Each structure stands twice: as structure tokens, then as C-alpha cells.
């Protein structure tokens, strides 16, 4: 299970608790296991406005949870305590996730935006959290498929990168002083420098390909989903867009305008059309993720053939050949 799956689970559990009538702050306390915890010393004591304006919450959270980066429970505990101190929950979620890696931060930010929009528009918060949980699970599935597709090429690259060391050890066992050749002869030093440079280039190339394949919107269609949520709460179109923009999510004005125009011409509810479009965006994101994973699996063969295999020849095979030739000539002399 990925961290994004865990965050989706948090959203689902919160939705269930809210549906059952539990207050948001209390629901967060239950998830964070803070029942009966009255320790307020760990929470900034300034008022909510001061906390949000000066930003100490983000610094406090990053410092306190530096050793547990990516820990979902740690973020929930920080949010629950901040909520008890009076900080708006949407802002508390964003601040608590400020120091996390981009993938986890994107998922937390999506949850924070949904919470903010539902709260400001008066839309049912539980339904909004369920929609966000569905979106995050779709993204997590794409990420898992990507990891599976890249596992083979990554393992092959690591194995081949270890072959130069194996070749050097094998040469030494056979009685050839490959280490002496590699580190103490001009030709060996040239092979060492070029081979290491190729390995570094392959490592960076692989990293760039994997990052490009994994780069995606952590919540595709979220802006459209949030507009639908705001309109469910009774907000007008312009007010809904304003609320969503205020939550930190840019709104695709042309896309929403096209959907709203279709709603007007066809006489159908705009909210349902917006949600259908958001669902379509998620399906397209899953399809694009699979395509990127398949493409990356093939592209990772390029660093292997262009950099890693030549590096193996330079670091493993060439010193062995040089040692064999040198020892042969020394024997003849």
C-alpha cells in the first residue's frame, strides 16, 4: 500500500465518522488517537489568524516531524492538535504536509482543498471526502502500475552496474592483478575515469526517466470536482470558482465554461455534468499513467546499452585484458 492509499483511507474514515454525526475536530482526534489528550504544550499558542499569517505551524511541523517524513499518522496528529488550537482544518492539513515529498504533499493538498471548499460553500463534507478518496485511489493505482512496470528495468540496471566489481574480483581470483592495472597504470586510470563517468551518467539518466514517468497531477479533475462540490452547497458559478481558486487549486475556466454552457443548452444539472467530467479526467489520467509506465520501461534500456554496458567493458573487461597481456609479455621477457 502506498502513502497515497493511506491518505485516501484517512479521507474515507473521516467521511464515515462525519456521516455518523461526529464533529470534524473530534473525528480528527479519534483518527490521531488523541482521546483524552489535553497536552496543548506542543501546539503553537498564538491565535489562528496569527498562526496562518506568520506560518509558524509549518515550521513547527517540519521540525517536529523531520524524522517521520511521509508518516501519515504524524500528519494526522499535527492536524488534530492544530484544529484543537483553532486553526482551520484545511489550512492545518496544508501546513502539516508542507515538508513532505511532492507525491504525498500533492495528495494532502488535494484533501485540504476539498475540505476548504466544502466548508466555505456549505456542501456536505462527507460526500466531498468520499469523492477525494476515490480520486486518490485511482492515482495510487497508477503509481503502483508504474512501479511494477519499472521494477524489471531497474533491477537489470542495478545488476549490470555491479558486474564491473564482480569482474575485478574474478580477475583477482584468477591471479591477474586487475586492481593494480585499474588504479596504478595510465591506461587503467583512463578506463576507471571513463567507466565511472558512464555509470554516473546512467544513474542520472535513469532517475530522469523515472521522474518523468511518475510526474502527474496528484488529483486529476480535482478543480472540476471542487466546483461541483461548491455548487452543491448552493454557491453560484462565479462564487464556486472563487472558492475553489481561494483553496489553492487553479480552475480551468474554459473547460468549466464549456460544461456549464452544455448544461444550459441541454437543461440538465450542471453538477452532474461536472462530476462526470472529473471522472473522465481520472480515467484519462490512469490511461496516460499506464502509457508512461510502458514507455519508461522501454526507455530505461537506453542508459543500460549506452552507458552501463560500456562502463562494464571499461571497468571489468578492459583491466582484465590489460592484466592478461601485461603478464603474458612479462612471462615472455
Automatic annotation (TrEMBL):
Keyword Membrane: yes
UniProt KW keywords: Cell membrane, Membrane, Transmembrane, Transmembrane helix
Pfam families xref list: T2SSF
InterPro entries tied to this protein: T2SS_GspF_dom
Membrane topology: Multi-pass membrane protein
Name under which the protein is recorded: Tight adherence protein B
Cellular component, GO, one term: plasma membrane
Residue intervals passing through the bilayer: 159-176, 182-205, 300-325
Domain Type II secretion system protein GspF: 73-170
Subcellular location: Cell membrane
UniProt entry tagged with the keyword Protein biosynthesis: no
Taxonomic lineage from the root: Bacteria, Bacillati, Actinomycetota, Actinomycetes, Micrococcales
